[in-house]
Amino acid sequence: MATVQDPLVYPFENTPGFGSTMEVAPGVYWLQMPLPMSLNHINLYLLEGEKGWTVVDTGIRGPETRDLWNDIFDQCLFGKPVIQILCTHMHPDHTGQAGFISERWQAPLLMSYGEYYQARVMGSMMRDGGNWQMSEYFVRAGVAPDFLEKMREARSDFAPAPEDQPLPASYIRLCDGDTLQVGQHTWQIITGNGHSPEHVCLYSKKLRLLISGDQILPVITSNVSVQPTEPFANPMLGWLESHEKFKRLLPNDILVLPAHNAPFYGVQERLQQLIDHHEDRMLLIEENCVEPLRAIDMLGFLFKRELENHSLFMGLGECIAHIHCLMGRNRIERRLEKNVYTYRSIDPTLSERAHPSHHEEPDDLPQMV
Ligand SMILES: [Zn+2]
User: Fold this and answer.
1) Cys-Cys crosslink for 16: which of 22, 97, 203, 212, Cβ 3.0 to 4.6 Å?
2) pTM
């Protein structure tokens, strides 16, 4: 069997491991914190300035990451304080320790408007439990009511707990096109959406570096989901448009520092791979919907493993994100019958094709980040 050469290049043989840092460019340090799932780490970054440090992303809530941060503060800051904290986006593995670090150093939080306010309400959304809107969303996707009961009881490890330091009570707004000066280096703010509403990436033309958060990951594909809070959203459209925007703005010889997996070269190839991946998933759905299907019926050809609990929640969200993008392109239509949505392809030639297209392997499970 011919092997396909991976077009991405990973320049570092080692990782910093938990509790220490590794300099990856002048004044730019990589560190990792643990995550309680098969994707067992998040990458965070420290930017050195004359007066102190900028922390980029903070890790998940809880004492394990907080203790590791204390080790970093004691051993890796060369006597300088943390002077600001930047969260690329609102997800709990990125914002979980922002309150703690901000209190510890009396340092401000920098975020985009969309991400800060989404993060502020996320805690209450996680505590909401069930409501009729959430039930309707899942029932219309084909989920049995007893699953909804189970979901109400399940508590995510990511959800904020009462003992946590809340997100800082104020923030400094970052906007697309802004610049952020840290020491000698100027970072351009580039935002994307689809994974989250106004995700911030940091680009230094001089250092030839992009801190990409979850906007561009080299191995896994970030979760792009429709959520019960906005059941008719089309996040996949924003995700694909963001990829085109990054393709236009970024040269290919930059080093990408992502929030998961390892730093890599080959950003243009990776952006195209991600676009191709989602286009392939959409074509797969379209070809399978020659006869009407519910969203839940499509999980078997999108994912290898049977999905349960949170993975079913994430898988359905991803599936519906692809469906809504197809609907926006007028390639699939939706009908509501007996309070369940079914989807059917519009292109009449699809059923006449003798051989469906060759598709990528299904993913094992939906990504939780
Ligand atoms: Zn994320």
Assistant:
1) 22
2) 0.94
CATH code for the domain of 318: 1.10.10.10
Q: Does residue 116 fall inside a structural domain?
A: yes
150-176: buried (b, 16+ CB within 10 Å) or exposed (e) per residue? ebeeeeeebebeeebbebbeebeebee
Residues 185, 300 within the same domain: no
Task: Identify the three-state secondary structure at position 368.
Answer: coil
Name the band, by pLDDT with cuts 50, 70 and 90, for residue 118: very high
Residue 150 in any domain: the answer is: no
Å from CA of 192 to ligand 1 middle:
12
Cα(118) to ligand 1 centroid in Å equals 12
> Does 145 fall in a domain?
no
3-state helix, strand, coil in the chain (%, to 5): 35, 20, 45
Identity of the residue numbered 332: I
Domain identity same for 343 and 216 = no
CA of 21 to the centre of ligand 1 (A): 22
Domain interval for residue 42:
22-129+155-274
369 within some domain: no
Question: How many domains are there within the chain?
Answer: 2
**CA R_g for the chain:** 21
- How many of the other CB atoms lie within 10 Å of CB of 109? 23
The pLDDT confidence band at residue 368, using thresholds 50, 70 and 90, is: confident
Ligand 1 centre distance from Cα of residue 260 (Å): 10
Percent of the chain past pLDDT 70, that is, above it, reads 94
The phi, psi pair for 237, rounded to 5°, reads -60, -50
154 has a pLDDT exceeding 80 = no
Band the pLDDT of 136: cuts 50, 70, 90.
very high
